[in-house]
Write a structure and sequence with these properties.
The complex is a heterodimer of chains A (232) and B (449). Chain A is an alpha/beta fold and 232 residues long. Chain A has helices at 10-22, 33-42, 59-68, 84-93, 105-119, 152-163, 171-178, 189-200; strands at 2-6, 26-30, 47-50, 75-79, 97-100, 126-129, 132-135, 140-143, 146-148, 169-170, 206-209, 213-216. Classes of the chains: A alpha/beta (232), B alpha+beta (449).
Chain lengths: 232, 449
């Protein structure tokens, strides 16, 4: 899950980013609206945490701009403005959730997960795809009922694939999900994580679609997934 | 004591008093009238007796007839006396009481005498040729009785009327005070936040100044209340972000693995606590200052200890940001801005100004505090605010764009408030050279105070 945070307060932005990163969320934190706006146009974020009281242009302005631009990313407003009138205005302008400061990292993360879930058209908190189970809140994975131990990056990759189990997702997009703005990007890093997933879960859990990207393996009933996984 | 009781008391005491005075006066008038009446009666009697007297040598006067009690009517015969004497003092004629009257050869006119222990009023009349002396007397008691009877006849109906009068007065007083009760009732029935003005046209003229004064007070209370509410709302709003910082930082600390990662998280948590602490202190300072109109304490300010204190408070920040804090004093023989005021408040002002200057100056630069005879200047190399920002700086909770440092947006408004309490103005402007910000504190023009 890759989340954009737009928060001008240095301490709060830093703490939110650090706390969410601890929970395995990939975070890009911006203090200026125009920077966040540029990032949002170029990266497919799963959600945005938006502060309203920004210097210069107000957060509400940015939200309205994004929605006019048909930006569909879920937006969670995190603000000190606690009036009912302000909440209504925020939600009506296009926010998907409105949280008044202060908020704990756990709650914020849970709300973000719920937003992402909904944006993928799912309501259930545990994603199931054939024998593969993913619990986003507990960050745990089971294969045929057996728990699998994965690192944060591996989990993030699997999450990205499970969000759209029927779709092929480009390498570029998956890399976006894995690394935040300033993160180091080795050219073959994605391949390394895919390899880890196949080794730890099942060789057929991830399919490679040559020239396009990756998708979850097809494991309906007792189909042998390995047969469809092309070797590279 | 209530107004009603007071009025009633005055009326109840003064009404009988006035009445007693009136009674005494009317008794006096009655006595005068009665005296006049009886005196003239006695003169007439004496003259009549004299006129009926025969020349000397005539036979003995007959015994006066005894009037039977049944023939008297209401007359009190025993109270009257008449006597006639000859030249030699021989009693020629008298009635039953007349013998008691003393012979006074040179008597003439009225005399108040005591006869057998009782006061009498006697009229002596000499005949023209001095042959006879006629005396007509009357017991004074007779007159007193008449005066008393007259007075008493006035007193009795009045005693019956007095309670009625008192009741009527009580009712009148109560009725006259109805507007006061209505006003009191209206105020008593109000909820604490109902600060609408009272309608002065409903109050009697005597109460209009009071109602006006009360309305003035109500409006002042209303302003104060609105101000307090605004301040509380602002404060609650401003506390949310530092609390959110702490909340998030605490969650990070909890999850951080032991080692440098945890130490860093804890250090950040400490900084978050410092920030909240600072904000709360400034909010308290602000709320205290808001209640004041003038600095309460007025002593001659000796600046050096104040500067020492303020600089010490900002030293940690200055060290962290590598800011050089410098203070310049006026040349020898000149005094640094003489002022009467509250040293504690002025220290707060200096600290807030220094803190602001050090917080927003570029790292490694110098902050210069300069005292002159008529002003205090504070320079830093901070980025020049635009005219729009310049106008808004010092507004409560306003924080200009692009601040790396977390401030509350209260420091300048606190400093400005302290300055105002001392009759000073605080101006923000650019430095003479053009680079950096200059804060100038100087005496307000007399017209603007």
């Amino acid at each position: 899950m890759r989340v954009l945070i737009l928060e001008d307060d240095p301490q709060l932005g830093d703490a939110l980013a650090a706390g969410l990163r601890q929970l395995g969320v990939v975070i890009d934190w911006f203090r200026r609206g125009d920077e966040a706006d540029a990032a949002l146009a170029s990266v497919a974020y799963d959600a945005v945490v938006l502060d309203l009281g920004l210097p210069g242009r107000d957060g509400m302005d940015w939200l309205a701009t994004w929605r006019r631009r048909r930006e569909r990313v879920p937006v969670l407003i995190l603000t000190a403005r606690d009036q009912v009138r302000q909440r209504i205005e925020g939600l009506d302008t296009g926010a998907d959730d409105y949280v008044v400061k202060p908020v704990g990292i756990d709650e914020l993360a849970a709300r973000l997960r719920a937003l992402v879930r909904r944006s993928h058209g799912r309501a259930e908190p545990v994603w199931q795809y054939g024998p593969l189970e993913y619990d986003a809140a507990a960050r745990s994975v089971r294969w045929q009922g057996r728990p699998i131990d994965l690192t944060a990056r591996e989990l993030t990759l699997l999450e990205a694939l499970m969000a759209h189990p029927q779709r092929v997702i480009s390498k570029a997009r998956l890399q976006e999900k894995l690394y935040d703005w300033g993160g180091e990007l080795e050219s073959n890093a994605l391949e390394v994580y895919v390899h880890h997933l196949r080794r730890k879960i099942d060789p057929g859990v991830v399919r490679t679609v040559r020239g396009v990207g990756y998708a979850l393996g097809r494991f309906d009933a007792d189909a042998a997934p390995a047969a469809e996984a092309p070797t590279e | 004591m209530s107004l009603q009781k007071r009025l009633l008391l005055y009326l109840l005491i003064s009404a009988p008093l006035v009445w007693v005075v009136a009674l005494v006066a009317s008794a006096q008038f009655a006595r005068d009238e009665i005296n006049e009446l009886y005196d003239s009666e006695m003169i007439r009697l004496a003259r009549e007796v004299q006129a009926t007297l025969r020349p000397p040598g005539a036979e003995e006067a007959p015994e006066p007839p005894l009037v039977a009690p049944s023939e008297r009517g209401d007359a009190e015969i025993e109270d009257l006396a008449i006597a006639v004497w000859g030249r030699d003092g021989r009693l020629l004629n008298s009635d039953r009481q007349g013998v008691l009257l003393p012979y006074r050869p040179d008597g003439s006119g009225f005399a108040d005498l005591s006869i057998e222990g009782q006061p009498w009023r006697v009229y002596y009349l000499q005949s023209f040729n001095g042959t006879w002396l006629v005396a007509a007397g009357q017991k004074v008691y007779e007159r007193d009785e008449l005066v008393h009877d007259l007075t008493f006849s006035q007193l009795v109906p009045w005693l019956f009327v007095l309670p009625v009068l008192l009741v009527v007065m009580a009712l009148a007083v109560r009725r006259a005070l109805v507007p006061v009760h209505r006003l009191a009732g209206e105020l008593r029935g109000r909820s604490a936040d109902d600060l609408r003005a009272l309608a002065p046209q409903q109050a009697p003229a005597e109460l209009v100044p009071l109602v006006d004064a009360m309305n003035g007070l109500l409006s002042r209370i209303g302003e104060l209340l609105a101000h307090e509410r605004r301040f509380t709302a602002d404060a609650a709003h401003e506390l949310r972000t530092p609390l959110a910082v702490l909340r998030a930082q605490w969650d990070v600390v909890r999850r951080a693995a032991a080692g440098p990662q945890r130490a860093e998280a804890e250090a950040k948590f400490g900084a978050g606590l410092d920030r909240l602490d600072r904000l709360v202190q400034q909010l308290l300072a602000m709320s205290r200052l808001d209640g004041e109109r003038h600095a309460g304490v007025r002593e001659e300010i000796v600046w050096p200890p104040l500067v020492e204190q303020a600089v010490s408070d900002c030293l940690a920040l200055a060290e962290r940001r590598v800011i050089d804090l410098v203070c310049e004093w006026p040349p020898p023989g000149h005094h640094a801005m003489p002022l009467l005021g509250d040293p504690a408040l002025l220290t707060v002002m200096l600290r807030n100004l220094l803190d602001n200057a050090a917080r927003y100056a570029p790292a490694g630069s110098q902050v210069l505090l300069r005292f002159a005879e008529d002003r205090i200047e504070l320079d830093n190399d901070g980025p020049l605010p635009g005219p729009q920002q310049l106008a808004r700086l010092g507004e409560r909770f306003y924080r200009p764009e692009g601040q790396e440092e977390s401030g509350s947006g209260l420091g300048l408004s606190i400093a400005r408030r302290v300055a105002a309490l001392h009759g000073l103005t605080l101006e923000l402007g650019t430095r003479a050279g053009g680079g950096g910000v200059r804060v100038t504190v100087r005496f307000a023009a007399p017209a603007s105070r």
